[in-house]
Specification:
heterodimer; A: 263 residues; alpha/beta; Rossmann fold; two-stranded antiparallel ribbon; 6 helices; 15 strands; 27% helix; globular; B: 323 residues; seven-stranded parallel sheet; five-stranded parallel sheet; 28% helix; elongated; binds flavin-adenine dinucleotide; binds adenosine monophosphate
Chain lengths: 263, 323
C-alpha cells in the first residue's frame, strides 16, 4: 500500500506582520512551520503504516526552507520526502499548485491513498485537495473527521457535510482531506528527529517533473492574483467597560436599549 | 466581464434551499442588472422541481432543474459532472457557490475541470469600472483581507454565509424553468449511514453565547445554555472545549470551526485568540465577560464585562427572566 501525504510550509500565524508601507504581508516577520492541519494527515498515514505496513511519501511544493516540512514528515515515519522547488513554481494559485502537485504524483507513480489537510492557515482556501482529486481523476472524501476502518483496498470513514456527518465507504485510489478531529498528532521522539535530520530529502525541479506545460506552472499558470492586501476594517466598537456589583444589570440594560433582547 | 451572465449553484440542505442561495441571488441580480446580463440557477436533487419557482421569485431569470432519484443524496462527482456540462453550454462569466462544506468540496473540482480561477470564502464582491470583478476574502486566518482578481474567462467564487444581503422576494417575477437530463456518474463513494442531524446551526443564529476555557467543567455548559435560552440564542464554544469532548464540533466558533455573524455575540471565559477572532469579527454587538481585564477579546468588544462568569451569568439570567 502506498500513501502520499501533501504538506505545506506556512508562517506562524500569530506572529506574522503586515507592512503598511507596501501593503504586503511580511513573511519574514514570522518563523515557518508545517501547516497544522497537515500534521493530522501525517498522523493518519503513520497509523495506517503501523496497522497495514504501508509506504509513505510526503510531498511539498515551496521554497528551499520547506525542506523542514519534509523532515517533519520523515520524523513521523514517512519513507520518502520530496521537495518541489523551482523558480517557475513560485506565485502559484491553487490551480497551478494542484497542476504541479499532480505532475509530481504521476511521476512518483502508483498510489492508493492521498492525504491532505482541510485548509492552510495562510491561504485559507481548502481548494488544493479537491482540485488535485479532479486532476488525478480519483474519488474524493472531503472533511473526513474519522477513519473508522482502513484496509488495503478501501476505507470506511466519517465525512462532514452541510447536512451533518455521513458514514461512507470508498475504494482506492482515493483522496482524503482530513479535519482536526481526525486524530491527535503525536510528537516525534528525539531519536526520530535525529534520524530525520540526517535523512535525504529529494529535490525536484520543473525539469524533473517530465512532461509539464511551463505555462501552467507558478504565476503563469495561475488564474487568480492578489491585487492588494489590507487589514480588515475594524468595526467601530463601543468599548464600554462594565465592572463592579452592578455590571450585569448595566449590561442587560444596555442590550435592552440596543433592542437586542427578544420580546 | 462580458455579458455572459451569472450562474448560481443552488445548495439544498435537509430538503430546503440553503439560505446562502438567496444571498447569492441578491448579489447575482445586482451584478446582472449592472452589466445588462442574466442570472441563472442550477438546482440538483430529487423531488425539487417546485423550488424552481421560489428561485425565480428571488431574482433568477432561468432555473436549470436536475431532478432525479440518483441525486437524492449529495454526491460531489455527480454534481460536478452535471455542472461542468451546464457551464460549457451556458458559458457564464461568473459562477457562484456558497462557502459551505458542500460548496467547498464541489467548487474546486468544477473550477479545476474548466480551468477557471476560484476565490473561496469571499466576503464582498465588487464590480470594477473596467468590468472586472473584485473579490474580497480573508487570508492568513482572517488577520488580513486579500483583494483578488481573476484572469480566466470564467470567474468562480465561493461566498461566505451571511456576508451578502439576500435578494427581495417578488412572487410576480417571471422566469424560465428548464428541465435538464441528468448525467449519471458513479463516484465510488457508498453512503453507509447518516450521523445525527445537526443541531440548530450556529452559522445562522442571531445570538450566540460562546463559552471558553473559563468554564470549569463540561457540566457548566448547563449555565451557558440557560443564558443562551434567556437571550433567545444558541451555544457556541472555543476549540479547546471541543477538543476535550465537552461539546460537539458543530458548536465550535472560529477559523477551524464555524464563522459566525450574529447580531449579538457573548463570549464568556474566552480570551480572544487570533483563530477565534477570525470567526466573530463581523458580529453586530460583541460582549465579553472575563475576569482578566487585559484579554484580546476586550479590545474588540462593545461591552467588556470584567468579572467572574460564575457570578455575572446567574445575575444576567435573573434579570432577563424578569423582562
Ligand atoms: C490551526 C489552529 C486553528 C484553531 N482554530 C480555532 C477555532 O476555530 N476556534 C477557537 O476558538 N480556537 C481555535 N484555535 C485555538 C486557539 O489558538 C486558542 O487556543 C483558543 O481559542 C483559546 O480558547 P479560550 O479562549 O477558550 O481559552 P484561553 O485562551 O485559555 O482563555 C480562557 C479565558 O477564560 C478566562 N477566565 C478564566 N476563568 C474565568 C472566570 N471564572 N470568569 C471569567 N473568565 C474566566 C481567562 O481569563 C482567559 O482569558 C486554533 C488553533 C490553531 C493552531
Ligand atoms: N504547496 C503545497 N505543497 C504541498 N501540499 C500543499 C501545498 N499547498 C496546499 N497543499 C495541500 O492542500 C491542502 C489545502 O491547502 P489550501 O488549498 O492551500 O488551503 C493542504 O493542507 C496541503 O495538504
Amino acid at each position: 500500500m502506498h500513501i502520499i501525504v501533501l504538506a505545506k510550509q506556512v508562517p506562524d500565524i500569530e506572529k506574522v506582520k503586515f507592512l503598511r508601507e507596501t501593503n504586503r504581508v511580511d513573511r519574514k516577520s514570522a518563523d515557518s512551520e508545517i501547516n497544522p492541519f497537515d500534521l493530522n494527515a501525517l498522523e493518519a498515514a503513520q497509523q495506517m503504516k503501523e496497522q497495514l505496513g504501508a509506504t509513505v511519501t510526503v510531498i511539498s511544493m515551496g521554497p528551499q526552507s520547506a525542506e523542514a516540512v519534509l523532515r517533519e514528515g520523515i520524523a513521523r515515519d514517512a519513507d520518502r520526502g520530496i521537495l518541489l522547488y523551482d523558480d517557475s513554481f513560485a506565485g502559484a494559485d491553487t490551480l497551478a499548485t494542484s497542476y504541479t502537485l499532480a505532475a509530481a504524483i504521476r511521476k512518483v507513480g502508483d498510489f492508493d491513498l492521498i492525504l491532505c489537510g482541510e485548509t492552510t492557515v495562510d491561504g485559507d482556501t481548502g481548494q488544493v485537495g479537491p482540485g488535485l482529486a479532479e486532476r488525478l481523476g480519483v474519488s474524493l472524501l472531503p472533511f473526513v473527521s474519522e477513519l473508522t476502518k482502513v484496509s488495503t483496498d478501501k476505507v470506511t470513514a466519517v465525512t462532514e457535510t452541510s447536512a451533518g456527518s455521513l458514514s461512507v465507504e470508498a475504494s482506492f485510489p482515493l483522496l482524503i482531506t482530513g479535519t482536526k478531529e481526525l486524530n491527535t498528532p503525536r510528537l516525534p521522539t528525539l531519536k526520530e528527529k535525529l534520524r530525520a535530520r540526517k535523512a535525504e530529502v529529494e529535490k525536484w525541479t520543473a525539469a524533473d517533473l517530465g512532461d509539464v506545460d511551463p505555462v501552467k506552472l507558478g504565476i503563469a499558470g495561475s488564474a487568480t492574483w492578489v491585487e492588494s492586501i489590507a487589514l480588515p476594517p475594524e468595526k467601530k466598537r463601543k468599548g464600554e467597560v462594565l465592572q463592579g456589583e452592578d455590571a450585569a444589570s448595566q449590561l442587560v440594560a444596555a442590550l435592552d436599549k440596543a433592542g437586542l433582547l427578544k420580546g | 466581464m462580458e455579458n455572459k451572465g451569472i450562474l448560481i449553484y443552488v445548495e439544498r440542505e435537509g430538503g430546503r434551499v440553503h439560505p446562502i442561495c438567496y444571498e447569492l441571488l441578491g448579489k447575482g441580480r445586482d451584478l446582472a442588472d449592472k452589466t445588462d446580463s442574466k442570472v441563472s440557477c442550477a438546482v440538483l436533487g430529487s423531488g425539487i422541481t417546485e423550488t424552481a419557482q421560489e428561485l425565480v421569485a428571488y431574482g433568477a431569470d432561468t432555473v436549470y432543474v436536475y431532478d432525479d432519484e440518483s441525486l437524492a443524496t449529495f454526491d460531489s462527482l455527480a454534481h460536478k459532472q452535471n455542472l461542468v456540462s451546464l457551464i460549457s453550454e451556458v458559458q457564464p462569466a461568473i459562477v457562484m457557490f456558497g462557502s459551505t462544506l458542500t460548496g467547498k468540496a464541489l467548487a474546486p473540482r468544477v473550477a479545476t475541470a474548466v480551468e477557471a480561477g476560484l476565490t473561496s470564502n469571499c466576503t464582498a464582491l465588487e464590480l470594477q469600472e473596467d468590468g472586472s470583478l473584485l473579490q474580497v476574502r480573508p487570508a492568513f486566518t482572517g488577520n488580513f483581507l486579500a483583494h483578488v482578481k481573476t484572469s480566466s474567462d470564467i470567474t468562480m467564487v465561493t461566498v461566505r454565509y451571511r456576508a451578502l444581503e439576500a435578494g427581495q422576494k417578488d412572487e410576480g417575477r417571471k422566469g424560465e424553468i428548464v428541465k435538464k437530463g441528468v448525467e449519471k456518474v458513479d463516484s465510488g463513494v457508498k453512503v453507509l449511514g447518516k450521523g445525527e442531524a445537526k443541531p440548530a446551526s450556529i452559522a445562522g443564529a442571531d445570538i450566540v453565547v460562546c463559552a471558553g476555557r473559563g468554564l470549569r467543567n463540561a457540566d457548566d455548559f448547563e449555565l451557558v445554555q440557560q443564558l443562551a435560552d434567556a437571550l433567545g440564542g444558541v451555544v457556541g464554544a472555543t476549540r479547546p472545549l471541543v477538543d476535550d469532548g465537552w461539546i460537539s464540533k458543530d458548536h465550535q466558533v472560529g477559523f477551524s470551526g464555524t464563522i459566525v455573524k450574529p447580531k449579538l455575540y457573548v463570549g464568556v471565559g474566552v480570551s480572544g485568540s487570533p483563530q477565534h477572532l477570525a470567526g466573530i469579527r463581523d458580529s453586530g454587538t460583541i460582549v465579553a465577560i472575563n475576569s482578566d481585564p487585559s484579554v484580546a477579546l476586550f479590545r474588540i468588544a462593545d461591552y467588556a464585562v470584567v468579572g467572574d462568569l460564575y457570578q455575572v451569568i446567574p445575575q444576567m439570567i435573573e434579570l432577563l427572566k424578569k423582562k
